[in-house]
Specification:
Order of helices and strands: EEEEEEEEHHHHHEHHEEEEEHEEEEH
Largest sheet: 8 strands, mixed
Structural class: alpha+beta
Radius of gyration: 28 Å
Shape: globular
Distance between the termini: 57 Å
Length: 453
């Protein structure tokens, strides 16, 4: 019998992966869970294990090929089953599965990864968004082609490499190809006299608005050129998608950390001796945010098409800096953890980032994200929402500043450790009142510093 190896689901927002390297070849014997190939996505690089023992019958995907979730990668011939009652032969699987893997899971791929059109062009109402393959995008970028002007001949009007080549050939001949004009032909009624239709007047020449294209800088002597890695390209694509699809609103709160600083100073030595790592402000900010999410569950949500899904579990993402760019490992079930529990999870995930041992599961399922860019002059800033979530909280640097406080019924000036918290939220589903109340509550929890260590 045969076992199919398919592209796995590696995170809720991941719709495709690239086969970067095959570790086996056709004819090789493999054991169960033996790594078969290396896969790269915008979330993580990982190995695909064999679902069973047997012999590699064929490799369907090629190295460098990008395929949607569920697409066929390889076929394994396993040992023949024990003899038993004869069964009717089953018809072979249709060839479309191997010759057109992009057809698998096309609908969710288009819904999540639809490439937005240039800002000067507006798609007709009700028109589906167009999605382009990496080859077509790269070709269009190299040749300066506006893909909204290219007629697609693929499934669903998808633009292929050949479509772009035909468009360029037409431009070289001085022709400007345009979309076909649809005509409706109605059958004549019984007994009706059919007369030749009058010649339609020539259509006016369409006026194409000029599209701004940024000038391309040519490197000079002494410049350092860093080619984008695939991970960096996908991160950029995610960021642009988030900014163009979710109207970001930002709000800032000032937090007095006097009580929290004193609590941390009183326990940091004991904590380090007991746990083996330092007690920072990050787990306190995390527990305060989680508590506020419990009180305002609408902030712990995901957008799915025209619906908002309010999540039951708080799967808390912590943005961390990695060698190839920002990653957001997720603490599952954060609502059940204490400050110490969150601190241990943050430390565990940070070690995995350093060791480059994060898995797809570590990066999937997040419902809200906290970002801590660190010290060195970070006053405050607004982070981009991690889709499909509806909010992200960003910490600023703790700075000692003179502030006005009330002491013995009178105003006084005191030096306090202060920090800004900046919230970015999706204004499609989160109103200003809710966003402000959530941020205010998070700030008050931090200022009250009512935490058990």
């Amino acid at each position: 019998m045969t076992v199919e190896v398919t592209m796995p689901q590696m995170g809720e927002s991941v719709v495709e992966g690239t086969v970067t390297k095959w570790l086996v070849k056709a004819g090789d014997s493999v054991g169960e869970d033996q790594p078969l190939c290396e896969i790269s996505t915008d979330k993580v690089d990982t190995e695909i294990p064999s679902p069973g023992a047997g012999v590699i019958a064929r490799l369907v995907a090629t190295e460098g090929q990008t395929l949607p979730i569920g697409a066929l990668l390889a076929v394994i011939e396993t040992a023949a089953p024990a003899p038993g009652p004869a069964r009717p032969a089953r018809a072979p699987a249709p060839p479309a599965k191997t010759t057109a893997p992009a057809a698998v899971a096309r609908a969710p791929a288009e819904a999540l990864r639809a490439a937005p059109p240039p800002p000067v062009r507006v798609a007709p109402a009700g028109a589906p968004p167009r999605r382009y393959s990496p080859v077509v995008l790269r070709m269009a970028e190299d040749r300066g082609v506006d893909l909204t002007l290219v007629q697609g001949t693929g499934i669903g009007g998808r633009v292929s490499k050949r479509d772009v080549e035909r468009y360029l050939e037409a431009l070289e001949r001085g022709q400007v190809p345009g979309p076909p004009r649809a005509e409706t032909v109605r059958p004549a009624a019984a007994g009706a006299i059919v007369r030749p239709a009058a010649a339609a007047p020539p259509a006016p020449t369409p006026v194409v608005a000029a599209v701004f294209r940024a000038p391309v800088y040519q490197p000079r002597e002494g410049d350092i050129v860093e080619v984008f890695t695939r991970r960096r390209k996908l991160i950029a694509e995610h960021m642009v998608y988030s900014k163009t699809h979710a109207p970001h609103v930002g709000t800032v709160a000032e937090v007095d950390l006097t009580g929290l600083t004193a609590l941390r100073e009183a326990h940091k030595d004991t904590f380090r001796n007991r746990e083996g790592f330092s007690l920072t402000l990050l787990p306190f900010a995390a527990i305060a945010t989680v508590r506020a999410l419990k009180e305002f569950p609408r902030m712990n949500a995901s957008v799915a098409g025209d619906s908002l899904i309010i999540r039951k579990d708080i799967n808390f993402g912590i943005a961390m800096d990695a060698e190839e760019g920002l990653v957001v490992p997720v603490i599952k079930g954060a609502e059940a953890l204490s400050v110490v529990g969150l601190a241990r999870e943050i430390e565990r995930l940070h070690r995995k980032v350093v060791e480059k041992s994060l898995t797809a599961d570590d990066l999937s399922g997040g419902s809200f994200t906290l970002s801590n860019p660190g010290r060195e002059g970070n006053l405050y800033g607004f982070a981009i929402i991690n889709q499909p979530q509806v909010g992200i909280l960003r910490m600023g640097e703790v700075k000692k500043r003179p502030v006005v406080i009330e002491a013995d019924g009178a105003d006084a000036i005191a030096v306090r450790p202060m920090m800004y918290l900046a919230l970015s939220y999706d204004h499609r589903v989160i109103d200003g009142v809710l966003g402000n109340r959530f941020l205010f509550r998070t700030s008050r929890i931090l200022e009250e510093a009512d935490f058990e260590l």
